[in-house]
Amino acid sequence: RSPMYSPVYQSADALINILFSSGTTGEPKAIPWTQLCPIRCGADTWANLDVRPKDISCLPTNLGWVMGPIQLFSCFLNGATLALYHGSPLGRGFCKFVQVWLNLHHLLI
Questions:
Q1: Of the N and C termini of the chain, which has fewer Cβ atoms inside 10 Å?
Q2: For residues 73 and 38, is the Cβ–Cβ distance under 8 A?
Q3: Which GO molecular-function terms appear in the entry (predicted)?
């Protein structure tokens, strides 16, 4: 343990992030995330989507959207790998990225 840093203990309902979603109405909404939310994401994706350590997942949207943290925590808490593409998912580059990962590593999207 580093002598430069010490842990800061928080309650389970302490906020760790505020996500944003436009939802179905098109109006932006703030979604507060507590320390329990990532654990729930990990548990839900393990139980319902069968995310396991052998899996490699890719999300073709910006990590700043609500699905970004869900994908991130789901992969990391279940031991899966998160494949990140730097650039727009609308071009040929992203399609090539997915094709290579699908062929080599059985990527899940």
A1: N
A2: yes
A3: 4-coumarate-CoA ligase activity; trans-cinnamate-CoA ligase activity
